[in-house]
Design goal:
Shape of chain A: globular
Largest sheet of chain A: none
CATH topology of chain A: Non-ribosomal Peptide Synthetase Peptidyl Carrier Protein, Chain A
Number of domains of chain B: 3
CATH class of the largest domain in chain B: Alpha Beta
Strand content of chain A: under 5%
Distance between the termini of chain B: 56 Å
Largest interface: A-B, 17 and 15 residues
Number of strands of chain B: 17
CATH superfamily of the largest domain in chain B: SGNH hydrolase
Strand content of chain B: 15-25%
Structural class of chain B: alpha/beta
Oligomer: heterodimer
CATH class of chain A: Mainly Alpha
Number of strands of chain A: 0
Order of helices and strands of chain A: HHHH
Radius of gyration of chain A: 11 Å
Number of helices of chain B: 24
Helix content of chain A: 55-70%
CATH architecture of chain A: Orthogonal Bundle
CATH topology of the largest domain in chain B: Rossmann fold
CATH architecture of the largest domain in chain B: 3-Layer(aba) Sandwich
Distance between the termini of chain A: 10 Å
Radius of gyration of chain B: 27 Å
Helix content of chain B: 40-55%
Amino acid sequence: MMTLEEFIVEFANQFEDADVSQFKADTNFKDIEGWDSLTAVSIINMIGKKCGVRLLGGDLRGAGNIREVYEIIQQRSQ
Amino acid sequence: MIEFLQLKKNLKKDFGKYKQIKLSILGDSATQFLTQAVRGYGYEVGLNIEIRESDYNQIDSQILNPGSELYQYNPDYTLIYISSHKLLQLYNNTKVEERSMFVMKQADYIDNLISTLQSNIFSKIIIYNFNEINDYVFGNYSTITESSFIFQLRRLNMMLMENISKRKGCYIGDISSIQNNLGKKTFFSTSTYINADMLISIEALPFVAKCTVDIICAAQGMLKKCIILDLDNTLWGGIIGDDGIEKIQIGHLGIGKAFTEFQHWIKKLKERGIIVAICSKNTEEIAKEPFISHPDMVLRMEDIAVFVANWNNKADNIRYIQRILNIGFDSMVFLDDNPFERNIVRANIPEICVPELPEDPSDYLEYLYELNLFETVSHSAEDGERTKQYQVEAQRVQNRDKFTNEDDYLASLEMVSQVAPFNQYNIPRVAQLSLRSNQFNLTTIRYSESDIEKISQSREYVPFTFTLDDKYGDNGLIAVVILKTVNTDELYIETWIMSCRVLKRGMENFVLNTIMAYASSHKYKVVTGKYIPTAKNGLVKDHYKELGFVEKDGLWSLETKNYINRKCYINQNYYDRCRNYFKGNK
């Protein structure tokens, strides 16, 4: 399992105009410019490939920030 | 393969310097990612593909409604993507007793879409075939049960190949092969499908984008025409100079098998019309020995257009090969097992394509299959003769050195040219020449077979084709001129292309004499033409000037009144129907 810091970088990479420094653990990613349903699909796909965890659309909608997404993955991968 | 993320990053880059291509994408599923991938992949090959994506599931209304955005956009290419998943949904809703005939209706539907599209606009069409989905309702028995989905899907793919092969300007993007290569688990992601209704996974998108852009490149004339091969450990195992002919590895044993299969692949390319040349650091006699006497060699001397084996730098040798073949470096592929040689060639000739061959020769073929270097959008029977023509050209080059006087040399060739309009026999070759010619091409207008057919039926245009035959051999159809009537006084040369195989033989004089004869017999006062510069046609920059045309505001013109035939050593052999060109009225 990757660290939270590594995860944030991978997460940021899925945005079209990724400025990695803009992304922090408590960033509400839905406020970041470029967030849309396509980005969500990319993120879910990335998590499936890199973490081996299948998220649902609702998981992302329910999460407030990147750390919460990371925590869901940790729980599911145990 | 490049990743989707990288293709997405390309979207931010500057496309301004690249050629613009208009593409319309029509799909029955969500195509946003596909659109991004295709545009991003275009950047990789130097194309600015402007894409207009139609709304979700609008294939029918866009094609069947003459006022649709598709027709307003008037794209150069239209991509139609009907997905296997939607096909399965349709099949599921088909009555059991009708399932055996299910795809007949689908094939008609697709055929009808394409006919409608082609009758409305000039766009070339790319349609994806169907990647296989087996619902296993009948298990393996599906393969012999006509009403099963997989039976129907495979039949549809077959019908698509048969129907489209009869059409002009329409191509299949073989995404079914992509799924076979990647595996369905990689090609299709259930989560991407459920979340976004996209049927191609993010991992597979770059492959699908490449397949699409490969077709566009080929249709734009960005083709590979020649493969240059190293010998030791590329074409056979071992080193001929050290190991000797009996010790090199080729044949059915061990790694020899890999080289035999590799040679079969090269041989098939040659038979298709790709020029094969050898460039090896070796003593020439020793290097040629296996081609002449090794029983297991697949490639023989007659398969090789130019054979260069010496101890010079490979970049210089490739330049020498290029001079004989007279084609651009960007249409050449160089294969060598040695990374050092590859780098020297790359550094000296950046335009040439030098694949990073895998270390293990058993991986060569699989690696090269995936690169799909030799995409094409045409094939004519003449292609297979190409190697012979270049071998003859090499002879001709050697012979020329015997003559001190150019005129004596040209007269000695005993050249004959047949002049003909477009006809069913030469249309494929004409379209191909218009795609392949970059250097001797005044306006670089690309014509598909259907364009050529339209021109041949139009009264506005006067097309000519020229062959060239001499005592060394037949060069086939090597020049095309398309004249357009501007008004009763002026005849405009819309296109003048010539194969570089026949440069410096006085062919341009012969062609001009033919044009002027036609113009004056039809009472035109002036013949005009333009030179539209591209990165590659500098060769003909002064073409019209040298032929005596006078320029005004970019338009070159030549009066018919005082035209005196230019000197040339080519005899004419008019095709019967063409003789009528020179009689009769406008």
